[in-house]
Structures are given as structure tokens and as C-alpha cells.
Write a structure and sequence with these properties.
single chain; 440 residues; alpha/beta; Four Helix Bundle (Hemerythrin (Met), subunit A); Rossmann fold; 434 Repressor (Amino-terminal Domain); eight-stranded mixed beta sheet; 21 helices; 59% helix; binds guanosine-5'-diphosphate; binds magnesium ion
């Protein structure tokens, strides 16, 4: 993949004392190939390589003490710029309701993303969303949206499949006003290919609903095609934002790099799972880091923060920094651990974690979490604070008290130490991002 490829190239010049023009040429060839292989649009690649080369050949790089690192930094900067520089938020209307129209090809993820977005808006901004069923063509499309709505407890407006989308939209907006629902998400139909009938219908819905956001939903797995799709939808509808779905899959990520630069429209969200909580704000800088294989530590912390309350998260962060994390903290975090989902997902975001041998053993299911809780609750205050005092006889007592086996008690203590080590590691990485050179 792109990240491995770039990483290998980086490795070659990383730490190199002196970089020659020839070195940079070799490296740029690698970058070009890697990007093309990742299905990035060739025009974008050309521009990217030209910009990076120009900066890399600049005198400040060639004469610096750490030219290799400087080049990597330039690649990262330019990748970030290519994806829009900064996160762009969803457009909100000053006068409720905010109207979002989901558009895109069939199967891109419009319906799923509509539900995810509704959930996110309710959670993050306390919005009262309404989902509007305007896909009257695909069999069972309306039921699909209703299922999504039921799952996240958000109302769905439908007039069946015999009323046209324009009229459905009109009535849905009236309904939203009546019910004081302030965030209307219109789920429209898609086609396998762009056609005129579809576009005309979408233009009609746009005219009736005057959306604050026309969210183009694009399947990241479609690579180069995604860019063409984005371009045509944009020409017809003047989209205002893009959601890139299925980034959790085995995608090559090329779409993320190309879409912004070809359409000039910001990627606002990324879909990271099929589940309703699998929508995340798109952060170009973090994406660039992830592509370069530095791990996405900030996303990880943010994910933790979403389910931990603010002050608690700050405390946790502080504890991680100072490594004063105890079993009491762990106990307090267990509910959050329950909400975070499989620890495996989180670990994937930690640099180097995938290479750690004990990652598997850290994965916990809800039942195991209950057992863990029982074990910790059987520890004394002193033991929770300083697990190193837990000798064999203490372990026996804890096992008996919690009704768990000695092996389980041992495993938990080992896991805890492992986790602490990892926290230390990624809080160090985070510090590195701000202060120290992050490329060492
Ligand atoms: P629509 O035709 O554009 O409305 O697409 P759907 O919302 O029906 O999604 C098509 C398929 O893609 C469904 O099976 C979804 O579960 C799946 N899907 C959508 N978004 C994501 C995502 O971010 N990750 C993964 N893994 N699957 C997704
Ligand atoms: Mg759909």
C-alpha cells in the first residue's frame, strides 16, 4: 500500500546526513509510483511531485543538518495541503432546520451515512434530526432507512414510493418545522452510473429544500473512479462537502488524496465502519500521518474523548503522560472501554502497535470486562495503586474474592502493565508531535 511504500522510501533517507539532488530524484520517483499505485489521479500526482521536489531542492533543505527529515516533513505537509489543510465542519443554518442532502452513486453509503450523521449531530450538537426517505426506486430502500432510524431512535419521514421526491421533501420540511426538528437529512436515490434522470431529480430536490449542505458520499474503495464521480456530481449540483466511506476496508486511500484537489470541495467526514458510530470528522493532517505510517494518535485520543467526559479525558491524558495510571483509573475507565468497542480497533491506530506481540491478549469482550471489574474490585486500595506489591498470596486472595482463577488474575496484571507501557509510548508520541521532531 501507499503507506508501506512511502515508509520504505522514507526509511532510506531517514537519518541520512546529506541528501543529494540524485537522492531526491530517487525518492520522488518512489513517491510518484506509490501514489499512482494507490490510484491517485495522475494530474494530482504530477502536481504533488513537482511541488515536493521544488521545496526539497530548496537551499534550506539541502543545507540543513537533517535533510532527510526535512524531506519527509515536506511530503507530509504537502499531503496535508492536498487534502485541504484543515478539517472543515458541516454547514449549519442560522435559521433551523439545517438541511443536508445526501447524494452519490448506489451503494456508496448514503443511507448508512445519513443515519451516522443524524446520530453524530444529536450527540455532538444536541440536534433533533429527521431522516427523509427520498429513495423511492431501490427495493426496500425505505425500509432500510426505517431500520436505521429505529436503531438510533431517530424519526424517519416517508410518503411511500408513489410520491415523487420533490413532494416528499416539501412535506418533510413542513413536518420538521411543525415538530421543531432542527436537522433534516434527505436520503436520496442513487444509480449505478450517473444519468440525466437522476441528476434532474436531485436538482429538483435541491431547489425545493435549499440545502445548507449537499453531501456527496463516495466509496473510497472505488479509487480513481471516485474522482470522476465527484466531478460529475459537483458539476450538476455544486456539492458543498464530501464523505468518504469504507475507509476501514482494504482501501488504497487514493481517493482521499485526489478528490479535494480535483473538485476543490472539502472532505468533511470519513466512514470507518458499517456501524452507526462509525463516522468521524476528516482531519487532513492526521490522514497524512496515517498514510505516512506514523499512526493516528490524535484520532485515538479523540475517540476516547467522545465516550469519556471532557474533564475525565483530560485527567486520563495527564495520567498517561505521567504514567501514574492505576487500577483505580482502570476501573473507572472500564465503562468507557465497554463503549469504545474492540480494543483491537484502537490499537490499530497506535504507531507500531500492530507489531506488538501482545495485542491479541489485550482484546476484551464485554463478559471479560465484567470479570476484570470483579478482579479489580477484590484488590485493596494499596494494590490498586501499586500492583507490584501483589505477590502470590495476595493473588490467591484476589482470585478467591472475585471468583476468578489465578491465571486470570495473572493475566490481568500483565495486561495492565502492557497497557501502561503502551500509554506511555503513545503519550510520548503525542508530545513528539508538538515539540520534538516527530520523524525520529
Ligand atoms: P447507498 O446505496 O448509497 O444508500 O448505500 P448504503 O448506505 O445502503 O451502503 C451500502 C453498503 O455499504 C452497506 O452494506 C453499508 O453497510 C456499507 N457501508 C456504508 N458505509 C460504510 C463504511 O464506512 N464502512 C463499511 N465497512 N461499510 C459501509
Ligand atoms: Mg440508500
Amino acid at each position: 500500500g501507499l503507506s508501506d511504500r512511502l515508509q520504505a522510501t522514507m526509511q532510506k533517507i531517514r537519518g541520512k546526513g546529506k541528501v543529494t539532488e540524485a537522492d531526491i530524484k530517487v525518492m520522488m520517483r518512489e513517491v510518484r509510483l506509490a501514489l499512482l499505485e494507490a490510484d491517485v489521479n495522475f494530474k494530482v500526482v504530477k502536481q504533488f511531485v513537482a511541488t515536493v521536489s521544488e521545496r526539497a531542492l530548496g537551499s534550506d533543505v539541502m543545507t540543513s543538518l537533517t535533510p532527510g527529515q526535512q524531506v519527509i516533513k515536506i511530503v507530509q505537509d504537502e499531503l496535508t495541503q492536498l487534502m485541504g489543510g484543515e478539517n472543515t465542519q458541516i454547514n449549519m443554518s442560522k435559521k433551523p432546520p439545517t438541511v443536508v442532502m445526501m447524494v452519490g452513486l448506489q451503494g456508496a453509503g448514503k443511507t448508512t451515512t445519513a443515519g451516522k450523521l443524524a446520530l453524530l449531530m444529536r450527540k455532538k450538537y444536541n440536534k433533533k434530526p429527521l431522516l427523509v426517505a427520498c429513495d423511492i426506486y431501490r427495493p426496500a430502500a425505505i425500509q432500510q432507512l426505517q431500520t436505521v432510524g429505529r436503531q438510533i431512535d431517530i424519526p424517519v419521514f416517508t410518503l411511500g414510493d408513489q410520491v415523487n421526491p420533490e413532494e416528499i421533501t416539501r412535506q418533510a420540511l413542513a413536518h420538521a418545522k411543525e415538530e421543531h426538528l432542527d436537522f433534516v437529512i434527505i436520503d436520496t436515490a442513487g444509480r449505478l452510473h450517473i444519468d440525466e434522470a437522476l441528476m434532474n431529480e436531485l436538482v429538483d430536490v435541491k431547489e425545493v429544500s435549499k440545502p445548507d449542505e449537499i453531501m456527496l458520499v463516495v466509496d473510497a474503495m472505488t479509487g480513481q473512479d471516485a474522482v470522476n464521480v465527484a466531478e460529475s456530481f459537483d458539476q450538476q449540483l455544486d456539492v458543498t462537502g464530501v464523505t468518504l466511506t469504507k475507509l476501514d476496508g482494504d482501501t488504497r486511500g487514493g481517493a482521499a488524496l485526489s478528490i479535494r484537489s480535483v473538485t476543490q470541495k472539502p472532505i468533511k467526514f470519513v466512514g470507518m465502519s458499517e456501524k452507526m458510530d462509525g463516522l468521524e470528522p476528516f482531519h487532513p493532517e492526521r490522514m497524512a500521518s496515517r498514510i505516512l505510517g506514523m499512526g493516528d494518535v490524535l484520532s485515538l485520543i479523540e475517540k476516547a474523548q467522545a465516550s469519556v467526559d471532557e474533564t475525565k479525558a483530560k485527567e486520563l491524558e495527564q495520567k498517561m503522560k505521567t504514567s501514574s495510571f492505576t487500577f483505580d483509573d482502570f476501573l473507572e475507565q472500564l465503562d468507557q472501554v465497554r463503549n469504545l468497542g474492540p480494543l483491537d480497533d484502537l490499537l490499530k491506530m497506535i504507531p507500531g502497535a500492530s507489531k506488538m506481540k501482545n495485542v491479541q491478549s489485550l482484546n476484551m469482550n464485554p463478559k471479560q470486562i465484567d470479570h476484570v471489574e470483579a478482579i479489580i474490585r477484590s484488590m485493596t486500595a494499596k494494590e490498586r495503586k501499586d500492583p507490584s506489591v501483589i505477590n502470590v498470596s495476595r493473588k490467591k486472595r484476589i482470585a478467591a474474592g472475585s471468583g476468578r482463577s489465578m491465571a486470570e488474575v495473572n493475566r490481568l496484571i500483565k495486561q495492565f502493565e502492557e497497557m501502561k507501557k503502551m500509554m506511555k509510548q503513545f503519550s510520548g508520541m503525542k508530545k513528539g508531535k508538538k515539540g520534538r521532531n516527530p520523524f525520529q
